[in-house]
Design a protein that fits this description.
The protein is of the alpha/beta class. The chain folds into two domains: 138 residues, Aspartate Aminotransferase, domain 1, CATH 3.90.1150.10; 274 residues, Type I PLP-dependent aspartate aminotransferase-like (Major domain) (Aspartate Aminotransferase, domain 2, 3-Layer(aba) Sandwich). 37% of the residues lie in helices and 16% in strands. It is built from 16 helices and 15 strands. A seven-stranded mixed sheet has the order 4-10-9-8-7-5-6, sandwiched between helices. A hairpin with a 2-residue loop joins strand 14 and strand 15. Helix 14 packs parallel to helix 16. The radius of gyration is 22 Å and the shape is globular. The N terminus is likely disordered. The structure holds pyridoxal-5'-phosphate. Belongs to the class-III pyridoxal-phosphate-dependent aminotransferase family. One of its GO terms (biological process) is biotin biosynthetic process. It comes from Bradyrhizobium ivorense. Keywords: Aminotransferase, Pyridoxal phosphate, Transferase.
């Protein structure tokens, strides 16, 4: 059902919007009222292509009846059941199904409700694992500059987006960061993975030299940072990171909240790069964005390493009221069915080249300083206006929206990550609207 409302007549005072310039937004709200397939419908009735899969989460496209039916059925059958010392069958089914598509050996699944919770959960598991294995001095957590790992204090601390950190002076102690890999001087307009920068993974050695390997619990990185507008890793970088973590007994956590569930044309980025981490954090596409849910995938050794002490002792003092919520599990199982039936976890591979060529055709337009892509993730970066970082990016985002394309902005970059049901004609339309917007806004 499409509900049309006249923009600007709704009351906007009470909703304190997340990650939004509230006062700016409320002067001219951009509102969606319904969605189907590749399109949102704005409140004024306009069709808007969803170039961002919602927020990198609606991988199977909008309005999937199978998910709606599963949710409805679940709500009227078992609306809630606790997972603390009780359980319900769907939680176990869902975990088994996730384990089936996971990289080999990463088949122990801890449920959360979001990416932020998955990150904090994985960091805590890393600490608990080392302690259980007689390495209680391994408490240091290493993130990366420009990383985004959600908004919990754990994720915030290992994250490296400066604005996100600056407002909250208190971070976890004992956290350090390796350098980011964004290098416009050497890699601007690189297609797929850039050639330069694998050596930046050697920062792990610097961390070890500085702090001592026996103090470091884990390194966490996004395989392809998304929130800082799509920064594909240099060739060989993740492989090197894996080698160094293994060498020093440090757990490698890959934050696959965006890259999980088909974004790169493989089920997970771990498959794409042929790099198996010790844990993966996921959320978003796990339920096609329909019901909040997240999951940490852990290697079996990590789970087994914590299954110590007497059988009646709790092994991990951690969990959420809504871990493995029955409705989320139902939505997730229906989502996995769709992914399987429609081959969506690998479909992106067929379109990656077309997507890449479309985006790179915008090279040469005014103020475009970089174009990046990998799988069905891409970004266009424009030159910041003098003294007004982000202003040109914002104008571009608004122009695109007014002309029928929703894209996520990050500073002066616009990220493109369509649902995985995308067809060539949608890519053509996205590129054309974006190109016109760049010319207008320039
Ligand atoms: C890599 C990564 N980690 C964690 C998060 C946080 O997820 P959530 O917003 O569901 O807490 C995000 C969100 O975009 C993300 O991209």
């Amino acid at each position: 059902m499409t509900v049309h409302q006249i923009p600007n007549t709704i009351k906007t005072d009470s909703f304190w919007m997340p990650f939004t310039a509230n006062r700016q937004f409320k002067k001219a709200p951009r509102l969606f009222s319904s969605a189907k397939g590749m399109y949102y419908t704005a409140v004024d009735g306009r069709q808007v292509i969803d170039g961002s899969a919602g927020l990198w989460c609606v991988n199977a496209g909008h309005g999937r009846p199978q998910i709606a039916a599963a949710v409805e059925r679940q709500l009227s059958t078992l609306d809630f059941a606790p997972s603390f010392n009780m359980g319900h069958p769907l939680a176990f089914d869902f975990a088994e199904r996730l384990a089936e598509i996971a990289p080999k050996g990463m088949d122990r699944i801890f449920f959360t409700n979001s990416g932020s919770e998955s990150v904090d959960t994985a960091l805590k598991i890393a600490l608990a694992y080392h302690r259980a294995n007689g390495q209680a001095t391994r408490t240091r957590l290493i993130g990366r500059e420009r990383g985004y790992h959600g908004v919990g204090f754990g994720g915030l601390s290992v994250g490296g987006m400066v604005a996100n950190r600056r407002q909250f002076a208190t971070h976890l102690p004992g956290v350090d960061h390796i350098r980011h890999t964004h290098d416009l001087a050497r890699n601007a307009f690189a297609k797929d993975q850039p050639d330069h920068g694998a050596e930046l993974a050697d920062d792990v050695e610097r961390m070890v030299a500085l702090h001592g390997a026996d103090t470091i619990a884990a390194v966490i990185v996004e395989p392809v940072p998304g929130s800082t507008a799509v920064l594909p890793p240099p060739k060989g970088y993740l492989q090197r990171l894996r080698e160094l973590c293994t060498k020093h007994g440090i757990l490698l956590i890959m934050d696959e909240v965006i890259t999980g569930f088909g974004r790169l044309g493989t089920p997970f980025a771990a498959n794409f790069f042929g790099v198996t981490p010790d844990m993966m954090t996921t959320a978003k596409g796990i339920t096609n964005g329909s019901v909040p849910c997240g999951a940490v995938f852990a290697k079996r050794e990590i789970y087994d390493g914590l299954m110590v002490g007497p059988d009646n002792a709790m092994e991990l003092f951690h969990g959420y009221t809504y871990s493995a919520h029955p409705v989320a599990c139902a939505a997730g199982l229906a989502t996995l069915d769709i992914y399987k039936d429609e081959g969506l976890l690998t479909r992106g591979a067929q379109f990656a080249e077309y997507f890449r060529d479309g985006l790179h055709s915008l090279k040469g337009l005014p103020n475009v300083i970089d174009i990046r892509n990998l799988g069905l993730m891409g970004a266009i970066e424009v030159k910041p206006r003098d003294g007004a970082v982000g202003a040109r990016g914002y104008d571009l985002m608004v122009d695109c929206f007014n002309n029928g394309l929703y894209l996520r902005m990050s500073g002066d970059s616009l990220a493109v990550s369509p649902p995985l049901i995308v067809e060539k004609k949608h890519i053509d339309d996205m590129v054309s609207i974006l190109g016109d917007a760049i010319k207008r806004v320039a």
